[in-house]
Amino acid sequence: MDIKMRGYFPEGPEAVTISYRNADPDTSSMVVEQLVNNFEKANTSIKQAAADEATRLSQKISEIEGKLKQIAPEKDMALIRSQSVTRMATNAATTRAQRSNTESSIGALSDKEYSLQRQINDLQRLVIEQEKFVKTQNASTRSSSPVIGQLLIRKSELEAQIKVFQTQYTEKNPKVISVREQLNEINKQIQILESANPATESVSAVTPESVELKNLKKDLARLETELEVTQRELGRKKESLSSMPIYSEDYSGLSDPATVASMSESKSEYDRLLVRYNSLIDRQDSMIKLAGISGSATPMFQIVDAPLRPQHPVAPNKMILYLFGLALSITVGLIIVILFELPNFVVLNDEQDIEYYIGAPVVALIPRTYTSEELSRHRRIRMTRSFILLIMGFCMIPVITVILHKVQVFQILGSR
Length: 416
Description:
Radius of gyration: 65 Å
Mean pLDDT: 75
Structural class: mainly alpha
Order of helices and strands: EEHHHHHHHHHH
Strand content: under 5%
Distance between the termini: 23 Å
Number of domains: 2
Shape: elongated
Largest sheet: 2 strands, antiparallel
Low-confidence stretches: 199-206, 251-255
């Protein structure tokens, strides 16, 4: 018996070739058929076992489906409750972060407002002092017009009163209105007097103290604008902070601990049953395919070629082969002997050849002597002939093989 494994398709399924040799063809065919029947019986047994396993798995799947249907509502409620708690916690965390950022922004804006207010107060004080200094200087430069000097002194006093009243009263207060009317009247008088003497105005407008006063007023206006913007931003932040909801840090009241534990247990049980259910479904599918229930079954052992009764012997008759080998060896030996003895037919080798050739008896023989050069030449000739014959013998082996293959001698012997 000969068993061969197929190895020329490593990625494909394994294949086995079984052959049995016997002198009786019926016996060899019967043995191979019995072996093949064993594989077919194994296929039948495997299909039956797979069908039984598929039935058993179907029962288990039905049981698990019933349990999953019972646990599913509890799992859904637990999932809804968990999502609600998670969503509320996320919203609370986001709101707390926004509230914290807003509070920090309000603190920073409050600090900025206080700093700007202090700077504005300082600048207002410097502006008042600088105005007094400029007016005093203008009054000294306008000594030629004592009326303007007195008006400027009165103007500075009224402006100082307005600065004080602004911190205490509103613009509609009678005191503030009265002082502003007096200030406007003095300004009109000063303009009338300065228009009469324009040289004095041009001199007072280009002094370094006047330039510094203008710069201080520009800085004051800039700081007041920045303070107003900061106050508006602070108001918006406070309004946004007041509109933000306040969440509690504790979410334990949303669910009972016992209920949470029960729901967690139900969820873990549901997940475990679901994994088990999926594995059983996969096994059932494989068993159904193996049993051939779905109609697309592939047997474990596939019989590619049915057992065949040999029509010709698998080997030639040994006796005939021995006789053929003997005849072939005798023929080759005779050919070799003829090749070696053929030169002797045209050469006189001894006295018998001489007597046969001349027809007279030989009286005496004179031996032929060779020199050393002749002996060495004869040795070289013999060695060359031997080497040529050896090469010819090696070359004749494939030639004889090809001739025997073409003549199909072994096929002829095997068919007898």
